[in-house]
Each structure stands twice: as structure tokens, then as C-alpha cells.
Amino acid sequence: KPYPKEVVAKISDLMLVFLKKVPQAVWLAALPQLISRICHPHTDVLKFIKHILSRTLHAYPDQVLWHLATVANSNVPQRRKGAKEVIQAARKRASEDKRKLFSQFERLIDELIRLCH
Q1: CA 91 to chain centroid
Q2: Where is the FAT domain (predicted)?
Q3: Is-contact 16 23, C-beta < 8 A?
Q4: pLDDT tens across 19-74, in order?
């Protein structure tokens, strides 16, 4: 049974407040769980997951890119799309150096995949 819109809105507001207060490093321990939910069927939950992932990627690209690499190259289109959206969101906020890192990492992963085939 779905919750009333008012309840969902209140929970969303509380989550936004919570997300601003929690240090980004906290999410590193939960990366596998967050990434595994990159196709969550509930749109509000999915929005928060992608928000957490993109902010954590922005703060810790060296750690998070490795976790997202497999999903960004998944055979499941929806998972691949979700990972690429997270990377794009982080890339938009990134400095020139971080954008360069994202591009270099993408090329590295492409070459590693090519090497394996």
C-alpha cells in the first residue's frame, strides 16, 4: 500500500536535511549496498541513492570510480544507465582536474575490457 504524498514529501525533506549533515566519508562503507540499488523501483529512493552516490563520487573519485566501473559497463541497460547518470552528475560539479580524472578512468576501463576480450 503506497504512502500518502504528504508522508513521502515529509520523509524526502528529512532525508535532504540528513544528507547535508552526514560526512561524505560515511557513505564509503555502504558503497556496495548503494550501488546494488542503482535500479531501485521507487523513484524517490532512487533519487536519493543517485544523489548520495554522485556526491560521494565527487568527494572521493579515486575510491568510488572503481566501484562504479563494473556497473557503468553492465550488460543490464538500466544499471549501466543509472551508473552513467551518477558519473555525469558528479562530472558536472567537478573541477577541470577531476573531469580529466573521470575521462582518464573511463579510457582505462575501456582498455582493460578490450584487453580481456
Answers
A1: 11
A2: 1-74
A3: no
A4: 889 999 999 999 999 999 999 998 888 999 999 999 999 999 999 999 999 999 99
Torsion angle (degrees, nearest 10) of CA 56, 57, 60, 63:
110
The answer to whether 82 and 71 are in contact (CB under 8 A) is yes
- DSSP 8-state class, residue 41: S
Give the closest residue to 48 by CA, choosing from 19, 24, 90, 21. 19
Residue in the structure block whose three cell numbers are 576480450: 117
**Closest-CA residue to 23 (of 60, 68, 77):** 60
Q: Considering only CA atoms, which of 77, 12, 14 is closest in space to residue 46?
A: 12
Lookup result for grid cell 543509472: 82
**Residue whose grid cell is 549501466:** 80
Crossing angle for the helix pair 77-93 and 61-72, to the nearest 10 degrees: 150
